[in-house]
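Hi W.,

Here's what went into the run:
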Amino acid sequence: ARHRRQPRYQVLHVSPLPSKWQEVPRVADSLGQSEKGVRKVDNSTTLILRLTHRDSPLSPFANPKASPRELLKNRLARDEARASAISVRTKLAARGIRANDLVVESVNYTAREQGVVDFAGPLMSGLKQGSGEYFIELGVGSPPRQTYMVIDTGSDIIWLQCTPCVDCYTQSGPIFDPALSSSYESLACTSPLCSMLELHSCAAQTNSCLYQVAYGDGSFTQGDFVLEALSFRGATMGGIAMGCGHDNEGLFASAAGLFGLGGGPLSFPSQLGNLLLRRVFSYCLMDRDESGFSSLMFGSAAVPMNTQFTPLLKNPNLNTYYYVSLVGISVGGSMLSIPPQAFRMDGNGGGGVIVDSGTSVTRLAEVAYGPLRSAFREATPDLPFAGGFSLFDTCYNLSGQANVRVPLVSLHFEGGAEMALPTSNYVIPVDTEGTYCLAFASAEIGA
Amino acid sequence: VSIIGNIQQQGFRIVFDGVSSRLGFAANQC
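Here's what came out:
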């Protein structure tokens, strides 16, 4: 017993959700000379963009009337929709079926006399939840129109709402008018870029490429697939293939569209890879911009010195998502007993878990989550158990306590990379009364 | 399907290296 390794704990500073959002001053822009957190360095080899969480007090889409508890509940509801959509898409891909294959027959394409694309057909039903939590500000077209786009590593296509609208959701600021942009360029139906779309069609009268993207949670967009210029305050990139959506459904956080960061060939990183920035990017996400800020970086400076790497895995049927091989989870320094197949992707021999910017709460297969939950509860016998909250099932009443000890939770990846999580990444407040929950969930919830 | 969500990613810089086909984590890089 003397030689048994001591459990590893760390201190959680108890600070429940405020009764209302405090005013948070805009963080001084530590990126230096840039405006709003964008700069170009190293002779165009690095691009840095500030990201903002949709519920942050700094967000232009923030709802000042919503309480932090309401915002959290809404966030978890969005998360359920997104996780379900990813699950369905992945399972379909394992059978060689793409989610978009399910809707193609229900949509009819027609072209108006003036060449404007129109779409008719039954609309998809279901949850109309936003597909992402963080957004960037960028310029579209020439001259650039400032817009906000949701970033999403679970999507490949860049798109924004365009006039004329067959059906557009309400967005912050004016909808992009391609007629006012000198850099807007239609893509022909026979262009290679058009054929790279998962789902495309052709407007016969104008020989222009049409795209459609369905997100599986009820959200979708369809319109012209075009080339356009994107500007990031100091850096402008022309000829970016993107969707100009005339029929868009879903609550994309009032943003103008979606900035696809997925692994497919039409995502922004993939298109940049063909240009100048080496197909390397990174992001850092913060909840409330209190210490440090969220940012998205492309190019050589996107890789910090102390980075631990693990191989990216390929899913032969679905190249959108970024998979890694999670080989273990430790609680308090002890590896959990989890069967190796817990994190396998499908029956094709591939394995891995998805690293996603747009899903909030980590979902684990029940055979992995069960041991995690049990080990965490066993390591916290003195904390007053408080049942569950939303998709969380392990909560504690920490009211009246300033600091508590919780076991260290680490994720271990192939190649030795380890994410030793700060306490705030897995024990989170859910109300103003001091209730905290273990912020993991079973992937089977809501299945 | 298991997914590592953004609450667990907070405070880490998540690096996607499409050239070397690897993904990286760097703590305290926001």
